[in-house]
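Worked problem 6 (solution included).
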Amino acid sequence: IAVYLIVFGGLLSVDRGIDNYLLWLTVGVFTYQLTSSSVLGGATSIASNLGLIRAVRFPRALIPLSVVLGGLLTFGFELAAIGTVAMLSGEGVSRRWLALPVIVAVHSLLNLGGAFIAARLTDSFRDMQQIIPFLFRLLQFLSGVMYPIERYLDSSHAWLHRVIVWNPLVHILQLYRWVFLGTPLDAADVVRSVVVCGAVFVFVNRRRTQMRCL
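Solution. The predicted structure is:
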């Protein structure tokens, strides 16, 4: 966070128009890191536990599930850190914090679905373990982690605009920032984010059910 603060806030001055850039950036980094670590952990979970899978008969889905739950526990401490930064920087405690459990639940659907997909892909194509980290480094710049992505929507190409608008992480980050900073929300973006996160989770579970039937 300190490095991003120096580079993007100090050198590139992307913090213009953001009242509390330190808190804004902290929320973005921790929130994005939760999804990144969950999906990357899911990608390596099956391959790194082959000995356990061969020795004990149990549902494979428990392995990426444990990775996501472990990341969620760690995120609890990160939320505490975000809350501390909010209070020290003058934002204070708000009633919006009551919405956190719902937002974390929606976020967890996305993380769990992504972890299942990554685990399945890596189980079939081991090179995905090298590709997924690279994709997440690129996705970081299309999710508004370090700078407000909405500033560049009007000037972006049509295909890039669609990628950003339908990127659920963009709106997940906006939800967390609304909780801690009170930034404005677009109802359509919230609905779109919930639909995408739910669709990813339902699709993955339907595929798992079909595979069990086969």
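Discussion: The CA atoms of residues 168 and 195 lie 9 Å apart.
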